[in-house]
Amino acid sequence: MFASFDFSVIGASLPYLFGQGMVFTLTLTALAASGGIVFGTLLAMMRLSSIPGLTHAAKLYVELMRSLPLVLVIFWFYFLVPYIGAWATGSATPIQVGAFSSALITFTLFEAAYFAEIMRAGIQSIPRGQTAAARALGMSYAQTMRLVVLPQALRNMLPLLLTQTIVLFQDTSLVYVLSLTDFLGAASKVAQRDGRLVEMYLFAALVYFAVCFTASLLVRRLQARTAIVR
Amino acid sequence: MNYTWNWGIFQEPSPEGAGTYADMLLSGLSWTIATALASWVIAFTLGSVIGVMRTLPSRAANAVGAAYVELFRNVPLLVQMFLWYFVLPELLPAGLGTAVKQLPDAPFYTAVLCLGFFTASRVAEQVRAGIQSLPRGQRMAGTAMGFTTVQTYRYVLLPNAYRIILPPLTSEFLNNLKNTSVALTIGLLELTARARSMQEFSFQVFEAFTAATILYLLLNLVVIAGATLLERTVAVPGAR
Question: What is the predicted ipTM?
Answer without folding.
Answer: 0.90
